[in-house]
Design brief:
Elements lengths: L8 E8 L2 H11 L3 E8 L2 E10 L8 E6 L13 E8 L2 H13 L5 E5 L4 E6 L5 E6 L31 H6 L18 E8 L2 H12 L2 E8 L2 E10 L11 E6 L14 E9 L1 H13 L8 E2 L4 E6 L5 E6 L27 H7 L5
Parallel strand pairs: 1-4, 5-8, 9-12, 13-16
Antiparallel strand pairs: 1-13, 2-3, 3-4, 5-9, 6-7, 7-8, 10-11, 11-12, 14-15, 15-16
Bound molecules: fe (ii) ion (2 copies).
């Protein structure tokens, strides 16, 4: 059998303490539309909000469980450090910096990361977010047809301690940006950066289990003693969009991630079709990975398993998609429930705080 290779990221699921506040930030400040308002199927008293592009395409989906009473999470080994969303270029990035800062949210950068330029901020729960440019891309320091072969040392001028922090902090768009213009619309997940305490073991896992390829071995520009490796769907010449996962290599006994508010709950990769998902399940079991049965999430079906460092992962089908229970033009406006929860609609609505 040819090896299964995921097409890339499907969605990321994070934890919010307040769904209305999360909606106001992602929809109204970042312009990422709500494509589904539903409840956590395993805990129907809690919202599950899905944001994404107008049709909820895999790779653009950001989802949130609302857990008002959960403790605050913390990044660490087995957890996600940050989520990066894509933007066209440095011009649109500076507009985002100005717009977000004008909403009272501190923004750092733009930092030259070599392969792209990045700004950073946090959402209202403390989840670290990045907005990263499309280019210049991963072929800037090694050939496009031989990515990930050798350790790449960045130019010292872009490392912490060498770069001009005051000049970077001062850069922004000169005018307020009250409207998100079409060229500013965020392009879905650029990459997700997580933390491991064993890069070799993690790399073997992501390559064998998910069919991702190592595309870059370098160091963290903000902590040069920490290695930073990148994986993606890569065919030997091009990278698939929305497919990059990066890992920081922490010391073996570094601190472990804690689940909770402001942290990522899990990362989902694309399984393709339902048939392909069954093959994925067999494949994971053949590697002695514990994997759940196929679970019906209405908009896709899912299987769950863990990376060796503890990170919770999912493989979700592309279909049937978000138009299965409401039309494309009005996604996310009303609470949608799966058929088995419809009889409890009144009780569920009474337990949820109304959203804007
Ligand atoms: Fe990043
Ligand atoms: Fe999920």
């Amino acid at each position: 059998m040819t090896q299964l290779r995921t097409a890339g990221l499907h969605h990321i699921t994070m934890v919010s303490a307040n769904a209305a506040r999360t909606l106001a930030f992602y929809r109204d400040v970042l312009g990422v539309g709500l494509v589904k308002r539903t409840v956590n199927f395993d805990d129907p008293g809690a919202y599950h909000l899905y944001f994404g592009d107008p049709t909820g395409s895999p790779g653009t989906l950001l989802t949130f469980f609302e857990w008002p009473h959960a403790p605050r999470g913390r990044w660490g080994i087995g957890g996600v450090h940050h989520l990066a969303l894509g933007t066209r270029d440095e011009e649109t990035q500076l507009k985002w910096k100005r717009r977000i800062a004008d909403h009272g949210v501190p923004v750092s950068g733009p930092y030259d990361r070599g392969y792209f330029t990045s700004i950073y901020f946090t959402d209202p729960d403390g989840q670290i977010l990045e907005i990263a440019t499309r280019g210049p891309g991963y072929a800037i320091d090694e050939p496009a047809d031989a990515l990930g072969r050798a350790m790449q040392q960045p130019s010292s001028s872009i490392l912490v301690g060498e770069r001009d922090e005051a000049a970077i902090a001062a850069r922004t768009h000169p005018e307020p940006v009250p409207v998100i213009t079409p060229e500013m619309v965020l392009e879905g997940m650029h990459h997700i950066s997580a933390i491991t305490n064993d890069l070799d073991r993690a790399g073997e896992f992501y390559e064998q289990a998910l069919g991702l390829s190592l595309i870059k071995k370098t160091i963290n520009r903000d902590a040069p003693d920490i290695p930073h490796y990148f994986w993606a769907r890569y065919d030997g010449s091009e990278l698939a969009p929305h497919s990059a996962l990066t890992l920081f290599g922490f010391p073996p006994r570094g601190h472990v991630a804690r689940e909770g508010v402001g942290q990522t709950h899990h990362i989902a990769f694309r399984a393709g079709s339902a048939d392909e998902q069954r093959a994925w399940r067999d494949h994971l079991q053949s590697l002695d990975i514990d994997v759940t049965p196929v679970l019906d999430r209405t908009y896709f079906t899912s299987i769950y398993f863990r990376a060796p460092d503890g990170l919770l992962l999912e493989l979700a089908t592309d279909g049937p998609g978000f138009m299965v229970d409401e039309p494309a033009g009005s996604l996310g406006r009303e609470l949608r429930l799966p058929s088995w929860l419809e009889p409890r609609r009144e009780e569920i609505l009474a337990s949820l705080t109304p959203l804007g």
